[in-house]
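Practice problem. Given the sequence and the SMILES for zinc ion, write out the predicted structure.
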Amino acid sequence: MPEEPQSPEHQAVNVYGQSDMAAYTRTLSTREVVFTCVRCQQEQREWRYPGPLPKYCPSCKQQVAEEREALRVQNQRERRQAEAAQRRQRNI
Ligand SMILES: [Zn+2]
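Answer key:
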């Protein structure tokens, strides 16, 4: 993927005060942040709105999500097998 120069995006956010009415509207700007992916240890550069830094680069984030899903499916399968084994034992 070629690296194109990006310019900050702007997003208007309503900031709420004591009342339910928006006290004022603040404009958040993206800034370029550099962080190290905890998984592949690659340094990442991303334009982000202010907030906590991400832990994973986009590709690792995708993989982590897939692994988590695979683990969930595996746990479910093991639980079902354990239950089936228990049922078999009781039938002896
Ligand atoms: Zn990564």
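Check your answer against the key. The chain has one domain: 10-91.
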